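TL;DR need structure tokens for one chain.
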Amino acid sequence: MNVIILEDESRAANHLERLLLKVAPEMRIVAKIESVRDAIPFLYTHPGIELIFSDVQLADGLSFGIFEKVTVKCPIIFTTAYDHYAIDAFKTNGIDYLLKPVEEERLKKAIEKSKQFSNSNTSDKLLAISNSTVTKTYKSRFMVKVGDKIKSIPIEEILAFYSLGKATYIHTASNRDYCIEYSIDQLEALLDVNLCFRINRKYIVSIQACSNILVWTNSRLRLKIEGINDDEIIVSRERVQDFKNWLDR
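>> reply
TL;DR here they are.
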């Protein structure tokens, strides 16, 4: 079976390759590709690929962009550090969704599932999966401590999540800041991607916070959020296009 790995982190790609050699030695890894830009022409010129392992976030964007431009008939097993892209994954030829670090037993089960799509009705089966209902529950409020009391903050009142030192805070529309017991990485997996976007390693912003956006140096964007005096509310260069797409949904 001819397989490709779409992964921009070499350590993760090598880890997956070692696992595949161990649990499915019959698979032939044809290529390991790091970007959307390189994957598109490769898939156009290699129609014989029978299974794709794909990270969601590649070096230059989301891998879903590949499958919007190239029609693939083989199943795709997505691998990612976060679970909030699951719905989009199953709208493509995605048959499984493995969280990193990929575990051997989960990989075995995913490979077994992929073997169900090796016959003539592959397209019909994949279509059935993509049309199935996949639900995801996101956090709608956060509990914070105010003195000796506990207060509930609805997600609609939060303009931004940010890290400062070793702590994480929320900043609200009423210009208040509260410490919460989540890391920025954890929050990214818990928040509705239609409402919140991670612009860099320090900040996640809500859609209502994006009313004052400035063109910044090095092809970046800078956000001004009322009540936050920080010059680092900047959309990193590699995230600018995804950010623009998110705003334009």
